[in-house]
Amino acid sequence: MLKLADCSTDDKYGTYPAKRTIEQILSSCIVIVDKPQGPTSHEVDAIAKRLLHASKSGHAGTLDPQVSGVLPVGINRATPLLHYLSGEKKEYVCLMRFKKPHDDKFILNLLKSQVGAITQTPPALSAVRKVPRKRNIYYIDVHQIKDTDVLFSVGCEAGTYIRTLCSDVGKKCGGASMLELRRISVGGIREETAVNLQALSDAAWLHFERKDETKLRPLLKLPEDLITLPKMFIKDSAIEAVCAGAPLSAKGICSLSEEIRKGLNFAAFSLKGELVAICNSLADADEIAKMQQGIVGKPVRVCMQRGTYPKCWQKK
Q: Is there a contact between 260 and 238 (Cβ–Cβ < 8 Å)?
């Protein structure tokens, strides 16, 4: 982090994330659901919405009904932030079946040839345009080959269709198809942190019916803990203006990540660690560090409610 100024925060305003009440958390949180086979992703986030008495919900990275695994579900004000998770790297475990047996070495080389940049056309049932597009496959690890079945894990760019990957592999050797698929991670969110719907239901019931939050609280993830964008920490006096949609001035910065780049987004935080807004940077970090005045970023998604911090600008 590049420190630009000595700053302090007033405890009369805002709340340290670790000190939020369960009601404050429920107003803006993300639940990592272990989606079962069967329901659609929309049905799963609707169930989470009902269980948590939420007014709004959504999910990051739609999974087909027959696919299981990690499904981040946004609750209330955290729902729009899912956009910044859906573009993250995905990892899956897949069971693929060839139409006829092949030599193990042939299969290993065939799958290895898919690592790197590939071109895919989304399947007919997908909701996106059916045009070829490039995607990156970061790795493919084969775990087991048994007769015509191959179990492998794959790390890939968001928007990669594993069903299409299996089909494209099959075109080179007489045919192959995807039998089963499970998503094991979205960005840094692993399946070990996911909760099944029954456990979420039980924890929610304890909270809403018995006023016992001990089971539910650990299942509600704070956006602050999941957003992986470069960070910028800003002064208390700059927060309300940003919440009102005003651009962020260089005078309002306390410190910033060296990874901030012009034209890309960064996350603006309060000194208490609260997520204030997602902003688009107007300069690289090293340039910002030299600025005495001027605009450094513009909010593209305000995350904090207005009035959390005092208004510190004067009317003309």
A: no
What residues does 118 pair with on adjacent strands?
A: 135
pLDDT at 315: 56
Q: How many residues does this entry show for the chain? A: 316
What whole-number distance in Å separates Cα of residue 131 and Cα of residue 17?
43
> Cα 178 from chain centroid?
25
Choosing from 221, 242, 271, the residue where a domain stops is: 221
Domain of 34 in residue numbering reads as 21-86+190-221
- Cβ(151)–Cβ(94) under 8 Å? yes
Q: Residue 281 falls within a domain, yes or no?
A: yes
For the domain that residue 152 is a member of, what is the CATH number? 3.30.70.3190
Residue 99 lies in a domain: yes
φ and ψ at residue 18, rounded to 5 degrees: -70, -15
Sorted by sequence, the CB contacts under 8 Å of residue 170 that are 6+ apart come out as: 98, 99, 176, 177
**Known active-site residue 64:** yes
Backbone angles phi and psi of 177, in degrees to 5: -145, 160
Transcribe 243-289 into DSSP letters. Answer: HTTPPEEGGGEEEE-TT--TTSEEEEE-TTS-EEEEEEESS-HHHHH
Catalytic: which of 6, 10, 34, 64? Answer: 64
Structure-block tokens of residue 231? 């960070």
Q: Which helix (H) or strand (E) holds 225?
A: helix 223-226
Question: pLDDT class for 316, splitting at 50, 70, 90?
Answer: very low
- Sign of the Cα torsion 230, 233, 238, 240 reads positive
For the stretch 124-139, pLDDT in tens is 767 667 788 999 999 9
7 has a pLDDT exceeding 90: yes
